[in-house]
Structure formats: structure tokens, C-alpha cells
Sequence to fold (648 residues):
Amino acid sequence: MARIALDVMGTDRGPAEMVAGALMAVERGQEVVLVGRRDVVEPELLASGSDLELVHAPEVVEMGDSPAQALRDKPGSSVLTAARLVASGKADALVSAGSTGAAMAAASIVIGRLKGVLRPAIATSIPRPGSPSLLLDSGANLEVRPVHLLQFGIMGSLLAEIVYGMVRPRVALLNIGSEPAKGRDLERSAFRLLEEAPVNFVGNVEGGDITGDTADVFVTDGFTGNVALKTIEAAAGVVVRLVNTSFIDLPPDVSPHVAAPMGELHKVINPERYGGAHLVGTSAGVVICHGSSSRNAILNAIRLATEGVKGGLVERLERGLVGP
Amino acid sequence: MARIALDVMGTDRGPAEMVAGALMAVERGQEVVLVGRRDVVEPELLASGSDLELVHAPEVVEMGDSPAQALRDKPGSSVLTAARLVASGKADALVSAGSTGAAMAAASIVIGRLKGVLRPAIATSIPRPGSPSLLLDSGANLEVRPVHLLQFGIMGSLLAEIVYGMVRPRVALLNIGSEPAKGRDLERSAFRLLEEAPVNFVGNVEGGDITGDTADVFVTDGFTGNVALKTIEAAAGVVVRLVNTSFIDLPPDVSPHVAAPMGELHKVINPERYGGAHLVGTSAGVVICHGSSSRNAILNAIRLATEGVKGGLVERLERGLVGP
Fold:
């Protein structure tokens, strides 16, 4: 089995939404242990008649807290407590929708990094027709060196193979043009490193390619990746809202015909489809979710973490990083 | 009148498409002088029966050329020749769809910068319901210092007032979260400078806000801006294609009802709507277009440049930068 430690505190929608997602996951056969303040979480469990295990954590890292300072000042925080459950083997993976910085720091300090990994990275699945693409880093490391981008490419390639069953996933460097000399010093150096790396490197691509089919794994620094990710989600959402608005005034006999294809569309581009993103490079599974995650997103994040554990994601990443 | 020097060389679709855009603009009362190789452009003019003025430029900067080297090695290039027409007062503004780097370099060297401007920036209009937002820099300066972002904010605010008639446009700093401490050292320092600046600074925003309504002018470095811009265009395009595909199998009596709202949607998010982007901070009007611009995009770019000249964009920017 795969036992998921779910940090239920410090999110935008509050612990009730997190508990609801956990209960949905448990109903579907997943194994979850909740981590949070007993006085807040227990009433939710009582109300739902569930006997789901709860590990009490008296403190909460808030979104506005400085991650490093919060971990120092709040040793009893839910995110640190959940990370400790994973580090001690009482759980197999951590899922958090609280402060991303705090979850990353807790993972790095308490769970630790795989041998040779300089910087764990957030690998976000971007929905597109067919299989998704992976964007990393999408927010963990705002400033990086070329060797970090090299490692993101190697880890992303392994992740695409393991999680999505891709064969020789195409790895691309996010840039402002396709020529090798394009970009900042960072991209020019990373280009040369990726050319020599044991991945199927297809060269530089532009922002528009992330939602296209020219590559499967998109490598960039965490600042650019975070902006690109949020931009994609919002731009897709704007168009969907415009389409919906345009169709409000359709005659009643026409609307049903439009509803079905629109439903399909929502399924393809639904940002909750994957629920969360793997933090790759840590010694155990860590899945990071949006602060505003709904119960459905949390359900999918727990599923993502469970599949990672069952598929031996961390062990296979470790072997892949060492090389054959 | 506003006389536009159009560099017709070095684009993806070739000079014929550029000439076609120019002819459409002239038909609509704009004044254009073409700049390019006579042997290539003259047959196009003859075929169309037009007597549009052509200034011969024997050399062409190609997309793959290093901009700095190309300008040194090709003094007779179309982009330099067009910039010289503007610098000498024989034309009022430059429009180019060739190498962005070469157009910027030609503008900086030949046309020059407004007093006090450290780095001209590309200000791209992002379509959204209602008035567009402005993103700058969207590709001119890949690496910047905080003072550059400050100037982008001031120039962007003036541009929004002058071109879109906005009152106290809301200026935001593109970042990975809203708190002042978020981001790289670059954003943290720029935040403090923008707080003190004579603009309506509304703080940090995320990538998703560019297509929303929390601000009007979005300030970032040229690398991030370029990735964000191309990401938005592509993500919107993907959704539109998905919608179109979903609607292929609608019954014939339903399709006409869907066609009208889809047509409206295309109009709102059409990336050719503005055709090009102002390079702000130069001593005369410069409009930069996509290398793949269609004749419609070129028509709109010429219109954008013409409106800039007639509205006194450069003079008003100059006054605004000096302060009251």
C-alpha cells in the first residue's frame, strides 16, 4: 500500500476542503493520514462520521510566512510533522497545498534529496490533447545555474517515462528562439550541457510550444516556469469563459448540442486534472498543490502521489540519475 | 501626415506579404515607403500596378544572424536603411517584421534613445475583453536591473494613457506571488522603486493576471515577458482549436448558431489585432512585428505606427519622462 501524509493546514479554502478531498480518496481505496490541528480537523471528521487517522500538529505555516523562518519558529507545524511521518517511514509520500516554499523546505530538510541532486524541482503536468507535457522547474528554484537546468532535464525525462510511459521523451529548453545562441548566458550554457546529456534533447523552444507537440519535457528556471504555468492556465480559462459567454444566448434547441463538446473541452484543459505536481529529486514522494485546491484537486493529488509510490517513482529516479 | 518606413525584408513569409500589407494600408489612406531589395520588391509592385515609393537596400539581415554583427557587416541592410530614413526625417516611424534584435539595435544606434532612457523596451498589447493590457518588456532586454524595470513601468504607464486613453493606468510587477518579498532580488528591489515612482503602482501580480483585470501595465524582464507573451497566444489558440474541433460534428441546423459567437471570439483574441508592438524609449516611432506577420498584421502595425506619430507618442513620452 501507499500511505499518503496529507498536510491539511494553511490553504486558501481551509481544512474542511482538504478533509473532503481526503475522504473522497479513501472511499476510492487510497490510504491517507491527515496532519493538522486537532481542534480544527476533528470536528470535520466527526461531522462526516469518518474514523480517518489524524496526527495532531499544533502549528500552521501561513502563506505570508517566510518559509525558512516559519520552519525554524514553528517546529510543530503541520507541514514539518507530515514530512517527519514520511522521513520515519510512517507514511510513503507527502501531499501539501500550503505554502509551496515551506513544503519544499520541509521536504529538503526533513526528507532529504536523492544522491547527486543539487536542487529538487517542481514538475507540473500541462494538459494538452493526448498526453500532457511536463514543465520544470515551475516554481521551486527562482534562480538557477546551467547545471541545475541539466538536472531538471534528466529528472523530467525520467518522470515522463515513469509516470506517462513515454518512450524517449523529447526534452526542450524554454527560450526566446530556436537557435542555440538565443537566450541569456544561462540558456546558452544549459543548451551545451543538455546536448551532451543522456536525454532526447530537441533544442530550444518558445513559450508557445509548451501547449503544442514539439516536445514533452520543458526545462526552465522556477521564475519563468511559474509565470508560464499561471499564464497558460489563465489564458485557457479566459477563452473558455468567452466561449461560454458567447453561447449564453443560443436558442434552447441548440444549447444541448453545444453542451457535450464543451464538457469534453473542460475535461481536457481542467487544471484540476492532475491535482498537484511532483517535487522531483527528493528521497520520498512529495506532491505540491495549488493553495486554492478544491476537494477534487486534492483527490487527484492523493492519487498522483499514490501512483508515484506504487510505481516506484523515487527508486526509479534514483537509479536513472546514477545511470546504467 | 505620418510617413512610415516599412522594412520588407528578412521575414518568415517573404517580401510579397509585406508589400501586400503596405498596399492595403495605402488604400486606407496611410503613407508608406518600402525599404528592401529592388530586384525582389519591384516585381511585386509591378504585378500590383502600384507606384508606391521604394528605397533600395542591397543587404538583408537574416533571422539567424547575430544582430550586432549583422549591423556591422551589412551597412546597406534594409533595417538600417529604414532607420536612417527615420533619423534623417524622411520618414516618421519604422515598422519591421525582420529580426527583432536587429530592429532594436538599428533603432538604438541610428534613431537613438530619448533623454534619460537606459533601455528601450517592447510594449506588447495583450487582447482581453474590454481594453487591452500592455506587457513590457516582451523581448528587447533579456537581463535587466531594477532601475530598468522602474523605467518600463513609467514608459508603460504613459503609453497606456496616450494610446488607449487610460486614466491612471494600474502598473503591476510580474512576479510569482503578491507579497512584496516574493521573487528574485530583481523583483524585490524593483518593487521598492515602483512604490516611489510617479505611477499608479498596484504591486506584484502573477502570470495569470496578465489576461485578467487586476492591472493594465505589466512590467517584467524581456526573457520572462517573451515567454509569457508567446505562452498566452498559444494557450488561447489551443483552446480555440479544441472548441472548433469539438464543434465539427454539430448537426447542420445547429452550426450557424455557433458560427457567430465563435467569430466574435476570434475577433477578441486575434493576435493580429494590434499587428505589432511599440518599442518605447526611442527618439522616433518604432513598431516591431512578428516574423510570421500576415498582410493583415502588417496593415495593423502600419496603422499602430501612424496613430503613434499622429498622437505625438514620442513627444509625449519625452515630456512624461522628464516630469511636469
Notes: The mean pLDDT of chain B is 90. Chain B touches chain A through 54 residues (CB under 8 Å). DSSP finds eleven helices and eleven strands in chain B. The longest helix of chain B spans residues 222-246.
